[in-house]
Amino acid sequence: MKKFVSVALAATMALSLVACGGAAPSAASSAANSTASSAASAASGEGGTIKVGVLANTSGDYAIYGNAVKNGVMLYINEINGKGGVNGKQIEVVDYDDKGDPTEAVTAFNRLVDDGVTAVIGSVLTGATIAVADESYAIGMPQITASATAAGVTVLDPEDPASEVRTNVFRSCFIDPFQGEKMAEYASEKLGAKTAAVIFETGNDYSEGLKNAFVDKCKALGIDVVSEEAYTKGDVDFKAQMTTITGKNPDVVFCPNYYQDDGNIVKQARAAGYTGTFMGGDGWGGVAGYASAEELEGSVYCSGYAAGTDDVKTFETAYKDAYGEEVPNMFAPLGYDAAMLMCNALSAAEDKGLETGSDDYKAAVIDAMKNTDGLKGVTGTYKFDQYNNPIKSAAIMKLEGGKEVFSEMF
User: Fold this and answer.
1) Distance of alpha carbon 73 from alpha carbon 50, whole angstroms
2) Among candidates 231, 269, 265, 324, which has minimal Cα distance to 17?
3) 136-166 per-residue burial string, b: 16 or more CB within 10 A, e: under 16
4) What is the dihedral of CA 86, 55, 308, 199, to 10 degrees?
5) What is the pLDDT of residues 176-192, one digit of tens each?
6) Helix (H) and strand (E) counts for the chain?
7) For an engineered disulfide with 269, which of 63, 92, 202, 274 has Cβ 3.0 to 4.6 Å away?
8) Rounded Cα distance, 402 and 150, in Å
9) Residue 213 confidence (pLDDT)
10) Contact in structure between 78 and 107 (CB atoms under 8 Å)
């Protein structure tokens, strides 16, 4: 379903944000959206609007990521609209559910282009985002993803250091190689690991990207990778792989997958007798719901969000006020930061007095994004490298008593 959301009053924020995915809105939510639409119409008549597209998998597999990203994006946009918008113009959001599927994502992106959007925030999963990036690069559409971490999102060939950069595509999250290398360093420096094993989803850009970086860094650090076990999408039985790994008894097992698979892997590994430490990337966000507290105890993963710390309390309070729940995972603050970065770039383009939505305007947005320097968000202070990846440190999350808690910046 196609939904248009334009919000001008901060007072309507909490109600207007609740409906997402395919759920039917309540009467109170419908009334709030009606009020917001009227306010946006008035704003449009006074200062105009800037139309921004949002792509997220708000249904299907891993919708916990897509809904969190979309909620974070809308939280920021509603806040800025409530303060008068971007240079006096309200942000009008056009959003589609791409179900995390690359083909659906491209179709949705083309619909956004037909809808006349000036910029795109999305998609969420790596495969869908790369598919959209191919399309957006061809037409110079500003694009930022909150969560697609594969190196190939912003460059055409991640294996070639001199590869062409998709100059229009940015991200608020860090990249897969960064995460894989960071966790190998953590295993060596903090856990004293001498041996490691990996279980990954073959054919998944995210999973393989983290795995390759982790393995390469382990070799450089002198950690012996004793086993690399693969599985395919949709597998739920990991007993054979975990029996093999358990037999080699590595100090750590790196699981660079998504939370549902990782929870099942941990559960089956414990049943097979493995007692060592599990490690993961940011796909572990939400894993606490898929294995017991005892099974997960002591596991660690790399995250872009230092949950519960003083620096993020304002965001966490605003999120709970808007949605009636705690921040579910790091994807919500990364969505918030992606919207912040995009709106900051839109403001710079508006300052030039260019026609909103024109090719020159879009080029100015891209240029402003590239030159971001020192913009503080919820998940870090932003500056981009030559590949349009943010330069910032990572948060280490630890599973303690069944909860995912911030451990340290590393």
Assistant:
1) 15
2) 324
3) bbeeebbbbbbbbbbbbbbbeebeeeeeeeb
4) -150
5) 889 999 999 999 999 99
6) 13, 15
7) 274
8) 29
9) 96
10) no
Percent helix, strand and coil across the chain, each to the nearest 5: 45, 20, 35
Give the dihedral sign, CA 208/392/389/78.
positive
Q: How many CB atoms lie within 10 A of CB 88?
A: 11
* Residues whose CB is less than 8 angstroms from the CB of residue 265 and which lie 6 or more positions away in sequence, other chains included: 199, 238, 241, 242, 255, 257, 278
pTM of the shown model: 0.75
pLDDT tens for each residue of 45-101: 457 999 999 999 999 989 999 999 999 999 999 999 999 999 999 999 999 999 999
Give residues with Cβ within 8 angstroms of 241, minimum separation 6: 199, 229, 230, 231, 265
- Angle of helix 313-323 relative to helix 63-82, nearest 10 degrees, comes to 100
Reported residue count of the chain is: 410
Lowest mean pLDDT among 36-45, 129-138, 294-303, 327-336: 36-45
Residue 23 CB partners (closer than 8 Å, separation 6+): none
Buried b (16+ CB within 10 A) or exposed e, 279-308: bbbbbbbbbbebbeeebbbebbbbbbbbbe
pLDDT at residue 229 is higher than 70? yes
CB contact at 8 A, 40 and 78: no
Beta strand 90-97 with 143-145 is: unpaired
Residues 231, 203 contacting (CB under 8 angstroms)? no
- Reduced to 3 states (helix: H, G, I; strand: E, B; else coil), residue 300 is strand
- Characterize 330-344 residue by residue with b for buried, 16 or more Cβ atoms within 10 angstroms of its Cβ, and e for exposed: bbbbbbbbbbbbbbb
The DSSP annotation for 353-409 comes to TPPTTSHHHHHHHHHHHHT-EEEE-SS-EEEB-TTS-B----EEEEEETTEEEEEEE
| pLDDT beyond 60 at 20 | no
